[in-house]
Design brief:
The structure is a homotetramer. Chain A is an alpha+beta fold and about 250 residues long. The first copy, chain A, is built from 6 helices and 11 strands. A 5-stranded antiparallel β-sheet of chain A has the order 1-2-3-7-4, covered by helices on one side. A 3-stranded antiparallel β-sheet of chain A has the order 9-8-10. A two-stranded antiparallel sheet of chain A has the order 5-6.
């Protein structure tokens, strides 16, 4: 079954591997007449890009987006928007070590069992780089939603045992620390905690919180297509996400 | 958008309101040759049925399932299986009080805004009775999965502050208390706790845990159709569910 | 793969066999607030019903429709509309002769190969009775389209070599002859031609023409979801239909 | 509604305009382990390419395909295959004349009404160049089907009044004349007929016939997903196609 397409009216199809020629997304169903340029998308790819702080993958990635279709004279035309991000230096590395064993916490074994062989150059389709297509499509969706008065505030709520203090919530702070936390003190503590984990060769989970404002009444449909259900599917389909709560949650 | 259909290969479509003529489900894509009779489904509808303990809705419901198609000489034929459960006494009640205000915690206001009017006889399509179609289809799905060696153990993990003790886990206990808890002592405590809540006119949340055994490697598809993502969507689409975790979760 | 569902926004799911308990359709996505009663649907089922003239299957069928959900106080609620038509006398017949061989021009062999066994009581799911669900759903769709100013004129254009003369087209004539032809002389000729065919134990094909008026500009979507393409799929999915033309056609 | 995706298990999403940066297709659900290289696809793009005879658009097109994902060490990986064909010289032309009026037989007016503006550089998404994505995906599908023993013979059956003589059918002849006809005499006649039409500034229709061999029993699903219905939808979604017949047809 083909699993790389999401959505019905605004429909995205992502493609690409971590070590292939590139990655991209086709966005079909975007309304015509929306002003759209590469910079609208690039700014989110730049935030997604690893190697920006000591806490993420040190690998350097350019991740420059190109719009190949669906935009004419600066506006969307209502036809599919094809976005491509070429991989750089995808050929040089020596994968002999990675090719000979299954890495824990990766989909290596699963891919081998499901497809009969695997792309041993890296995570391939199950690499974190797969989210490039989601981020690019999300940038376009966000532009539409913002025009409709729907806004998002998203931040790291907790890392391991370090939880942001709601009383200290400061939206301005979110983009001012490498961990995207809205509480400067928690960010400092989480930073120290992560350094200790990394020194031990360990990793740790956390929680991301997203506050959506300006929603009209009645979005979503009864029974199987509730908004809650589709948000849960979208978020749970991101690699490494293990839980989803809405409203008061658990 | 139509929201009452779920699934691609094994596809279910539910219908029916709490106070209409009946509720049901059409199951399309069930393999041919599966032995199936009404009792296979009825036993799960009987467990779903409220009014069996003092903790659930006291309303009496017969909830007798009828197979209208898709089964011939005791076996499925590969064509759609139509199941119907007729409502009893759906006409007699006086709804004048319910019709005049929106009930907190119900979808009354949302339905009115979305559709322009609402079925003031009760929750209608957003009533808990909507799950009858899911339970009936689930009984058929379970029979197929069991034949493939996939089994489910499902129980109440916690109610309010009362959490089952994993060391006292007893699968036999699950169906021996009205709260479906695998720990008899927790069940007794939760029962007392619920009685106190009900005396205060209050309600309380809880957690349900499901352990799935016998899964083959490679079920689900990369990116948007991961098994995690589709399970989350299915569970989060049940009314009143507010969170979903998989594996170690949060 | 489940094949009994059609449509995205207005989505129909049909079920039922020629010799089971009944047939029906679930219509999901019908707008709320449409006046709808059983008579709106029954009048089309009555036209569909065989045994009304000497040229169709002599079997008598009651085919009374029941609305089980989705309508409240005479108007649709926006939730699924479940329609059921119970089969009468579905148990008495002796099928021993039919059970022992594959009938030419039926799906008997195909069903046996695909599903491993077949419902030897008759065509089952591939019987002409399967169209009952389509006709019932079509009656609801027609009511919506008519309110939008879209109207349909449908008639038999030709039977075997007998073709209606466009210059003699008379819309009033369509429902006044058993063959639904808009040209009385052609209808008389076709009637004589069919009697001769039946005397020879032969069957013959024909063409149905449908003129749709009042269509707004821009219905359908570029590339794979063109209106032409979806009409062709819908019509070609009717048993025994072998060709489709639009506009000037061939 | 997004209309650029077709299929469920083998799912294709096409994108691109006649005068944009390029065109392409994402193929999702292709089985892993299929040998696939650019030449497998290029040979069909070369046949599709106009400017090869005096009867088709004189425009020169390179139409070189690039595989951007889904193939590793010469074999498909089971993940999406992204194919891109860059447009050449897409910027230089003067469109001022075309921009000022709607061309008959094109979708110019419809696009303007539906989307509020149009890409006046040419047909855009409704240009014949849109079929590039279909041909590229079709080349991959064909390779899979051929491995399963399913083969296709496709040719021009008629052009205007010139119909190939079935008794003179010669499969070898199909690729030896510019009109892909299996009857050399008919091809010569059709060629003369087309030259006369072109001298008059006129166009003419024709029929394409496709013979599929090696089909297993039972492909397709009952009711709405019959093989006939899906073939009809696929073919009728090609621009300028106005009719579809199967088996004996009309």
């Amino acid at each position: 079954m083909a699993g790389s397409t999401f959505g019905t009216i605004f429909k995205i199809t992502t493609w690409g591997e971590s070590h292939g020629a590139g990655l991209g997304v086709v966005i079909d169903g975007c309304p015509a007449g929306l002003y759209l340029c590469e910079e609208d998308i690039q700014k989110f790819l730049d935030r997604r890009k690893p190697g920006q702080s000591q806490f993420s993958t040190p690998r350097k990635e350019g991740d420059i987006v190109h719009i190949l279709s669906g935009v004419f004279e600066g506006k969307t035309t209502g036809t599919p928007i094809s976005l491509v991000i070429y991989n750089e230096n995808q050929r040089s590395k020596d994968y002999s070590e990675i090719a000979s064993f299954y890495r824990p916490g990766h989909a290596d074994y699963t891919f081998d069992m499901k497809y009969g062989f695997r792309d041993y150059r890296g995570g391939g389709r199950s690499s974190g780089r797969e989210t490039i297509g989601r981020v690019a499509a999300g940038a376009v969706a966000l532009k539409i939603l913002n025009q409709l008065g729907i806004t998002f505030t998203t931040y790291t709520k907790s890392i391991g045992p370090i939880v942001c203090d709601e009383r200290l919530f400061d939206a301005m702070q979110i983009n001012q620390n490498a961990l995207y936390m809205p509480d400067a003190e928690a960010a400092a503590n989480a930073s120290a905690y992560l350094e200790a984990c990394m020194a031990d060769g360990d990793s740790v989970g956390g929680m991301v919180e997203c506050v959506i404002s300006g929603m009209p009444v009645g979005i979503g449909d009864p029974v199987f297509e509730k908004l809650d259900a589709n948000l849960a599917k979208a978020i749970m389909s991101i690699g490494a996400v293990k839980g989803f709560e809405i409203g008061d949650g658990f």
